[in-house]
Structure formats: structure tokens, C-alpha cells
Specification:
heterodimer; A: Rossmann fold; OB fold (Dihydrolipoamide Acetyltransferase, E2P); elongated; B: alpha+beta; Heat Shock Protein 90; 2 domains; 11 helices; 61% helix; rod-shaped
């Protein structure tokens, strides 16, 4: 048992289930203080950054950002110098693949409806984990690294279905459809309801979501460097680290800087 | 789907019937002719098996697709019979040390008789083999059809009894029992009615619009408990249309789509309206939502989703071209799906 009371945040879009989880936690871990309960992924990120809880309970299916996406976003924006990255517990009703992936990555999860004895196991694991970094502060960075490696593996898991590779992007320009060979594309960037397709000289907007593109593109040719950005690896010119420790990359033939999220920073290491 | 194509009778599979047929012919010839059975038997087998082999090779070579090219058999059988007769006779001559080719000079009638006998037995054997293969193929086809029907029933059931929906509903129910047992009971009643309808709807038949709307209410009530204030709904069924017969759970997939693709991805949620109206003998059923809209859904008009495809198929079987389903962007964002079918009272 930790001496000081731990804090937690619950992200669950179904109000009754959020209440139920809170009630079960009150029984299993009386000193745990729920600092906020939110109903969507974006609020989960914002509240976690504002309140800096020790534990996060994230539902997988949420409106806006999913639980996984919210965790990745949070990992990207978390300031490890100030506080260790919170312990993550995913909550899911039924998802065979997700559960398999959680098991494989040794990520904590609880199934809905939440069972008291299963939750008690999770709680004692969490209590152990929370007691540890207090003794060794060096673990902070390592803690986040581990969480990010797990998240990367979890996010990559569902894209196993092989689809025919995309060779041409069909973008509508006015009344015409422009055929843009995939070889000319330097990067894809998600922008609200569209995806920007950027070549050396042009820009197009398409409606196909980035997730769908990702499944149809060769992962060695196009690297995901951010939740919303896919970049042609061969076109990357340089990667820079700014004063705040954030990575940006520049492309040959383009002037803009593209941010690299911390989740994908492992792609760029000097040989 | 793998439907085996008929490649002609394989020699091995038809070896036994061929040997038996050849033996019967040899017996017949012995009864009417002057040679010993053993000699007739050797000739009969040599000729018969040669013909069989040649027919088989001919089919392999000239009829790769039995379905469309089977008529070529008319040329293959006589040619193979004649060639097989000559080949078999020569073979038996070598085996027994005879010179029966001389018959063509000394007893041409007998020689022609044997040739015709060969032709007839070749035809009989081919017919026998082909019909056996045809039977096997038909049996396989029936099995495939049966398997497909079972698969699509299972998929329908799976789409309606989606485990994620079921477990989330049960989790809500469990939570509700502790805080509001009366509401929990109502929720359980809706779940029971929903499950009962789902499990029996995969069978054909119709029910009244009144019942259809009651089942939609069950589903929407379950979702309303789960989603809380994020889901509002309106069911609008004029009294005059209550007794109209419709296929069971026809609208269910549309309401599910509205929730799954329209409201659930949206942080504030939204509302769903289900409406029935009639005009000049046409019944219009409409499901509209204020959800995320069509933009984010990949090519919805092609009906890629199982729900839409299933509705389209059901409508086509029941009403043919008299029915239609349309999916359009709603005027105030969101999506509007409408089904038109002939009004039957």
C-alpha cells in the first residue's frame, strides 16, 4: 500500500459504466482518489495533462480519440521531467483481438462488466508499480519508453489484414479526377475530414481516412511519424531536436517542418 | 467456392466397371463365337481398356471445360473407339501371337461387328462415367449452397448479436441493478424482447409495423441507457399504418448504422428519428440522424456494409424492382436513409 493517496482518471463514454467502475474502485482501493471522469478521448488527454493523475483507466471505444489514440497522444505531450507517466489500464467490453494484444504486450486491462476479484488483482499490481518509481526516479524515462513501445505494438496490431497496395491516388480537383502516382507523394497529412496529399509541387485533398491509406501503403516506404502524418522515408532530409526536446523533420524539396511524435521518435537514431 | 470441374472419367476410378464390362462382352462373344473365353477375354480387355484410355485422354485434351464443351464428346468417342479398337487388337495380337488383322480381309462383317461393339461399349462407359461425375458435382453444388445459406444466417445473427453490444449492455445492466433496480428491470425486459426478436427474425415472414417499431424501441431504449444524454430518439408511426406488414427487423440495421457510424463517433452524440409514411400506395420508411454524416464513411452508397447489403437483398427478393433504398446526406448534417416498398394492407 502506498502511503500517500494515489489519484486516478476514468475515461469512459457510457455514464453508468463510469459510475460502476468508480464504485468498484472505491471498494477495491479506498484511498484512490478519482480526480476526474470524462466521456471522450480528447477530454481524457486534456484532463490527464491538467490533473497529472497516477493511474489512467481508458475505455477502448470512445468518441473522438479511441482509448489507444488518447494514450498515444498523452504519451507524446507528457512532460517526463515533472512527473512519471501514469500507469495505464485499458477497459473493454469485448474485443478478442484487443485482449490478445494486451496479453501479448503485458498491458493492464479490465473487462466490462468489471468483476471485483479481477479488479483487485489489477489494483494490487498498480499499487506495486506506483511504489517502485518513487524509489528510483531514473525509471521515469524508461517507464514512458516502455509504455510507448506497448502502445506502438497495440496500434499496429489490427492492421494485419493485407490489402492490395495503392499505386495511384485519385484526387478530385474541381470537376476532374487527378491521378497522382504514389511515387510522387512526399507525405500524407490528416486535416479534419480530409487527408492532404503533398507532392514536390502540388497538394491534393482526399477523403480516404489516413487509417485506410496506412493499410494500403508499404510501411517501409511510408513511415508514420505522427498520429496524422505519413512520410516517404526516402524523402526525409534531416531530423532536428528543438530546445523543448521535440523532434521535427524536413523533407527534400519542401520547406515546411513536420513534427515527429514521441511515439515514433525511435525511428530516428544515429547509426 | 471450389466447384470441381468434370475432367472426364479418370481411368483408375473407372477401371473396375470397365474390366467388368469387358468381361461381359468377352462372355457374350464366347457364347456366339468359336474362340476360347480366355482368348476373347484378353482381346476384350485390351480393346476396352485402350478405348477407355483414349477417351479419357481425348477429354483431358479437348474438353478442359465440361460445362460448355461437352458436345465435343460426339467426336471424341467414335474416334477413340476406332483407334482403341485397332490399338487393342494389335496389343492382344502381340500378347497371344495371333494375326487377327487378317479378319478385315477374310471376315469383314465380323471385323465391323467388333468395331461397332467397341463403339457401343465406349459410349456406354463414357455415359456411365459422365453421369456419375455429374451427380457428384450436383451433390457438391447443393452442399455449397447449403453452406452459404448457413454462413449468411450466421453472419446476420452475428451482426445483430454483436458481442461488444451485448457485453456493454450487460455491464450497464449490472451497474444499474445496484443503483436503480426498477430501471434495471425495464432494461432487462427490453433486452429480452430484443434478443427474442433477433433470434426469430432470421426466419422468413412478416410482422406489423407496430411490432417493427416496438423492436426498434427496445433497441433504442437499451442504447439510451448506455449512451445517456448522448442519444435522443423519436419514433413516428401514424395509426393508419400500424397494421401494415413488413419483413421483421428490416429497419434494425439502419438504426444500428446511425448509432455506430453517426452518433457514437461524435462527442456530443445526437438524435435519431424513425418515420413511416404512405403516399399513393407506396410506403416510405425513413431513418435519419444528426450524426457525423456521410463524409467520413467510405463509399456508403455502394452499400459496402453488411447491414445495407442485407436490406437490399431482402427487398429485392420480396418486392423486386418495386422497392428502393436510398442513403443521402441529411439537410442539417447527419444521414438520412429511406426505404420505399409497395403498400400492402
Amino acid at each position: 500500500m502506498s502511503q500517500t493517496s494515489a489519484t486516478a482518471l476514468i475515461a469512459e463514454d457510457e455514464p453508468l459504466l463510469a459510475q460502476a467502475l468508480q464504485a468498484e474502485l472505491a471498494r477495491a482501493w479506498p484511498v484512490l482518489q478519482i480526480v476526474a471522469t470524462v466521456g471522450d478521448g480528447a477530454s481524457a488527454v486534456a484532463q490527464a495533462l491538467a490533473l497529472q493523475p497516477d493511474v489512467l483507466f481508458f475505455d477502448i471505444r470512445m468518441p473522438g480519440l479511441s482509448g489507444l489514440e488518447a494514450a498515444a497522444e498523452l504519451a507524446d505531450r507528457w512532460d517526463t521531467a515533472a512527473r512519471p507517466f501514469p500507469a495505464l489500464v485499458f477497459v473493454t467490453a469485448y474485443d478478442q483481438y484487443a485482449v490478445q494484444a494486451f496479453e501479448a504486450q503485458a498491458v493492464d486491462y479490465v473487462l466490462k462488466p468489471v468483476q471485483a476479484d479481477r479488479l483487485a488483482k489489477t489494483v494490487s499490481k498498480l499499487q506495486l508499480a506506483l511504489a517502485r518509481p518513487a524509489q528510483a526516479a531514473i525509471n521515469m524515462e524508461a517507464n514512458l519508453e516502455k509504455a510507448m513501445a506497448q502502445l506502438r505494438a497495440l496500434m499496429a496490431a489490427p492492421a494485419s489484414a493485407m490489402v492490395a497496395p495503392l499505386t495511384v491516388i485519385q484526387a478530385s480537383v474541381g470537376n476532374a479526377i487527378r491521378m497522382v502516382p504514389i511515387d510522387e507523394v512526399l507525405y500524407f497529412e490528416a486535416a479534419d475530414k480530409y487527408v492532404r496529399v503533398v507532392t514536390a509541387s502540388h497538394e491534393y485533398l482526399i477523403r480516404t481516412p489516413l487509417k485506410e491509406l496506412l493499410a494500403q501503403l508499404d510501411a517501409t516506404t511510408f513511415w508514420q511519424i505522427h498520429r496524422g502524418t505519413l512520410v516517404r522515408a526516402a524523402a526525409i532530409d534531416a531530423v532536428h531536436r528543438d530546445d523543448a526536446g521535440k523532434l521535427h523533420l524536413t523533407l527534400r524539396g519542401r520547406t515546411e517542418k513536420l513534427p515527429v511524435s514521441r511515439l515514433y521518435a525511435h525511428l530516428f537514431k544515429a547509426m | 467456392m471450389t466447384v470441381r470441374t468434370f475432367n472426364g472419367p479418370s481411368l483408375l476410378a473407372h477401371l473396375l466397371p470397365a474390366v467388368v464390362l469387358n468381361s461381359v462382352i468377352a462372355l457374350g462373344i464366347t457364347a456366339f463365337g468359336e474362340h476360347a473365353f480366355s482368348s476373347n477375354w484378353v482381346y476384350s480387355q485390351c480393346i476396352g481398356l485402350s478405348i477407355g484410355t483414349l477417351i479419357m485422354l481425348g477429354i483431358r485434351w479437348r474438353i478442359p471445360d465440361w460445362e460448355t464443351q461437352w458436345r465435343r464428346i460426339v467426336f471424341i468417342v467414335p474416334l477413340a473407339a476406332a483407334a482403341g479398337f485397332l490399338l487393342g487388337t494389335a496389343l492382344a495380337d502381340v500378347l497371344l501371337g495371333n494375326h487377327s488383322m487378317a479378319y478385315w480381309r477374310t471376315q469383314p462383317r465380323k471385323a465391323w461387328g467388333f468395331l461397332i461393339l467397341s463403339l457401343v461399349s465406349g459410349t456406354v462407359l463414357t455415359y456411365f462415367a459422365a453421369s456419375r461425375a455429374q451427380l457428384a458435382k450436383e451433390r457438391e453444388r447443393a452442399q455449397t449452397a447449403q453452406r452459404h445459406a448457413a454462413e449468411s444466417r450466421l453472419r446476420l445473427l452475428e451482426s445483430q448479436l454483436e458481442p461488444h453490444m451485448l457485453f456493454n449492455t450487460l455491464a450497464n445492466l449490472r451497474a444499474l441493478i445496484a443503483v436503480d433496480p426498477v430501471r434495471a428491470q425495464t432494461m432487462l425486459d427490453h433486452l429480452i424482447a430484443y434478443l427474442r426478436a433477433t433470434l426469430s427474425a432470421s426466419q422468413a415472414g412478416t410482422h406489423t409495423l407496430d411490432q417493427e417499431f416496438a423492436r426498434l424501441r427496445d433497441y433504442l431504449e437499451l442504447m439510451a441507457v448506455r449512451m445517456g444524454p448522448r442519444l435522443q430518439y423519436t419514433l413516428d408511426l401514424p395509426d393508419a399504418l400500424r397494421q401494415v406488414q413488413v419483413p421483421p427487423l428490416l429497419l434494425q440495421p439502419l438504426v444500428e448504422n446511425s448509432i455506430q457510424h453517426g452518433l457514437e463517433p461524435q462527442v456530443p452524440g445526437g438524435s435519431i428519428t424513425v418515420r413511416a409514411a404512405s403516399d399513393a400506395g407506396v410506403l416510405t420508411l425513413e431513418v435519419s440522424d444528426t450524426g457525423k454524416g456521410l463524409d467520413s464513411r467510405a463509399t456508403p452508397l455502394e452499400g459496402k456494409g453488411f447491414g445495407l447489403r442485407q436490406i437490399r437483398e431482402r427487398l429485392a427478393t420480396l418486392y423486386g424492382t418495386e422497392s428502393a433504398i436510398k442513403l443521402v446526406a441529411g439537410s442539417a448534417g447527419g444521414t438520412r436513409a429511406s426505404i420505399t416498398i409497395p403498400l400492402k394492407t
